[in-house]
């Protein structure tokens, strides 16, 4: 790979289309581009909205209105709004529709003429999303973005953001290799995207014919997605449909330059534009928040297994480096962006860092009293976990139920509180069990080659080297405080 002397210069005078523009990672990418390359020609940001007024409101409240843009605002001062107006073009659309749902014909034709780089980060990341919704965004959406890209006369690269966990529950070293259409994780036969789309359509027709209630339709479609995912070897609808999206891109790309980026679990920023920025609740953050709110009293998992997390700014930096390195390369390349090979950290470090943080920064209960910081029990086998849950929750709940029946619901508040905690723990275990016992590590040889190709003077400005992370310091002093700050907003 040739040396990358100036990543920022690769974006000078370029037009970039970004889908999923209100998402966590897309915002990090957009902010970084605008901060390091003010001479970018245009950023077309696709947002789901019905009209120009709505798209502007969403952009201001969900993008530039966020603290993430604080540094850029300080840099431009009073000229910030005019800078954004000059560099950013807001596009109302929806990737689940043909032509990305863009209704303005003139705008579509202008974009086909101008766009050099497309970053597709739009996705539904809900593990148990409705199957029709997940197929529409993660699969058909990828195809619609590809079709749009093929019509862009000056396109240099399509960068598609996927997830490393399209690997399902594989163990050992997982290579940076593309999926073939119809490939499954359990050798089951018969996986066909068109057949899955027909299945979705038929199920919806059946539900509508039966005139089922909306909540029952939602439940049925969620169950269908989970059933299809597990039938072919994936643990949930999200990673299954992301894998299908990759297959569609690989099959139909022809000679279009394509890079698929597979990040692992993305966490708060390490350095840029400042440490600890994050948005939403993602993966390990649910555990941190659950403990902070006294909802998490135990968990199921193996503390010695690797917890593959990567700070969000490192992923954004890798996105820029990948786009700079692969422009006009008529190939398909896969990049894992993670830490399990280059700088592994296990779940025990998260537990220790949390204990350290909450010991130094004690929680305060609803009554104003300081809460005791203690280590939660973590069970590495399902039998011990269920035994704990029976003793800690099920038996007391049954006793409270009988008592409430006899004493006119005298302890109903206590019952409801204990029931909420029980359901919270069981929900988290159901959600994260495939990852709490994940025994794979993601080979990042392609990313390592890219790191070596980046010029020395660029490596600090576009850092995506996991070896620079001090995990104990990052978790206790950056990430956990960032999660709690986000929780309080």
TrEMBL record:
<dbReference type="InterPro" id="IPR033640">
    <property type="entry name" value="FAR_C"/>
</dbReference>
<dbReference type="InterPro" id="IPR026055">
    <property type="entry name" value="FAR"/>
</dbReference>
<feature type="domain" description="Thioester reductase (TE)">
    <location>
        <begin position="18"/>
        <end position="319"/>
    </location>
</feature>
<keyword id="KW-0444">Lipid biosynthesis</keyword>
<dbReference type="InterPro" id="IPR013120">
    <property type="entry name" value="FAR_NAD-bd"/>
</dbReference>
<dbReference type="GO" id="GO:0010345">
    <property type="term" value="P:suberin biosynthetic process"/>
</dbReference>
<keyword id="KW-0521">NADP</keyword>
<dbReference type="InterPro" id="IPR036291">
    <property type="entry name" value="NAD(P)-bd_dom_sf"/>
</dbReference>
<dbReference type="GO" id="GO:0102965">
    <property type="term" value="F:alcohol-forming long-chain fatty acyl-CoA reductase activity"/>
</dbReference>
<dbReference type="GO" id="GO:0080019">
    <property type="term" value="F:alcohol-forming very long-chain fatty acyl-CoA reductase activity"/>
</dbReference>
<dbReference type="GO" id="GO:0035336">
    <property type="term" value="P:long-chain fatty-acyl-CoA metabolic process"/>
</dbReference>
<dbReference type="Pfam" id="PF07993">
    <property type="entry name" value="NAD_binding_4"/>
</dbReference>
<comment type="similarity">
    <text>Belongs to the fatty acyl-CoA reductase family.</text>
</comment>
<comment type="function">
    <text>Catalyzes the reduction of fatty acyl-CoA to fatty alcohols.</text>
</comment>
<dbReference type="Pfam" id="PF03015">
    <property type="entry name" value="Sterile"/>
</dbReference>
<keyword id="KW-0560">Oxidoreductase</keyword>
<keyword id="KW-0443">Lipid metabolism</keyword>
<protein>
    <recommendedName>
        <fullName>Fatty acyl-CoA reductase</fullName>
        <ecNumber>1.2.1.84</ecNumber>
    </recommendedName>
</protein>
<feature type="domain" description="Fatty acyl-CoA reductase C-terminal">
    <location>
        <begin position="405"/>
        <end position="486"/>
    </location>
</feature>
């Amino acid at each position: 790979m040739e040396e990358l002397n100036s990543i920022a210069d690769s974006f000078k005078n370029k037009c970039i289309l970004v889908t999923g523009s209100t998402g966590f990672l897309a915002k990090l990418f957009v902010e970084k581009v605008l901060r390091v390359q003010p001479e970018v020609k245009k950023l077309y940001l696709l947002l789901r909205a019905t009209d120009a007024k709505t798209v502007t409101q969403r952009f201001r409240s969900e993008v530039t209105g966020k603290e993430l843009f604080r540094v850029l605002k300080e840099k431009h001062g009073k000229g910030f709004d005019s800078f954004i107006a000059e560099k950013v073009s807001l596009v109302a659309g929806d990737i689940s529709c043909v032509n990305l749902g863009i209704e303005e014909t003139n705008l579509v034709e202008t974009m086909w003429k101008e766009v050099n780089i497309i970053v597709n980060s739009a996705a539904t990341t809900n593990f148990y999303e409705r199957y029709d919704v997940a197929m529409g965004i993660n699969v058909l959406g990828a195809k619609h973005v590809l079709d749009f890209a093929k019509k862009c006369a000056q396109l240099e690269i399509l960068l598609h953001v996927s997830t490393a966990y399209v690997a399902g529950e594989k163990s050992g070293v997982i290579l940076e290799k593309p999926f073939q259409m119809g490939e499954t994780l359990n050798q089951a036969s018969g996986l066909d995207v068109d057949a899955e789309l027909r299945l979705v359509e038929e199920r919806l027709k059946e539900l509508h014919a039966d005139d089922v209630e909306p909540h029952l339709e939602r439940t049925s479609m969620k169950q269908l997605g989970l059933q299809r995912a597990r039938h072919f070897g994936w643990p949930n609808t999200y990673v299954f449909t992301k894998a299908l999206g990759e297959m569609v891109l690989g099959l139909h790309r022809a000679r279009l330059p394509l890079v698929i980026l597979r990040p692992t679990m993305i966490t708060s920023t390490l350095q840029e534009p400042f440490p600890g920025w994050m948005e939403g609740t993602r993966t390990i953050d649910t555990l941190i928040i659950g403990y902070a709110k006294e909802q998490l009293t135990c968990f199921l998992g193996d503390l010695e297994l690797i917890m593959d997390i990567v700070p969000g700014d490192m992923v954004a930096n890798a996105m820029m480096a990948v786009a700079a390195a692969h422009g006009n390369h008529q190939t398909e390349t896969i990049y894992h962006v993670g830490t399990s090979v280059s700088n592994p950290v296990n779940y025990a470090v998260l537990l220790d860092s949390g204990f350290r943080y909450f010991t130094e920064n004690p929680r305060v209960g609803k009554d104003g009293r300081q809460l005791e910081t203690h280590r939660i029990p973590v069970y590495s086998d399902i039998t011990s976990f269920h035994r704990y849950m029976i003793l800690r929750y099920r038996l007391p709940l049954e006793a409270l139920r009988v008592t409430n029946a006899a004493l006119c619901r005298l302890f109903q508040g206590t019952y409801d509180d204990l029931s909420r905690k029980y359901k919270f723990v069981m929900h988290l275990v159901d959600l994260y069990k495939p990852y709490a016992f994940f025994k794979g590590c993601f080979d990042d040889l392609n990313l390592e080659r890219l790191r070596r190709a980046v010029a020395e003077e660029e490596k600090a400005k576009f850092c995506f080297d996991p070896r620079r992370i001090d995990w104990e310091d990052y978790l206790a002093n950056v990430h956990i405080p960032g999660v709690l700050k986000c929780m309080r907003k």
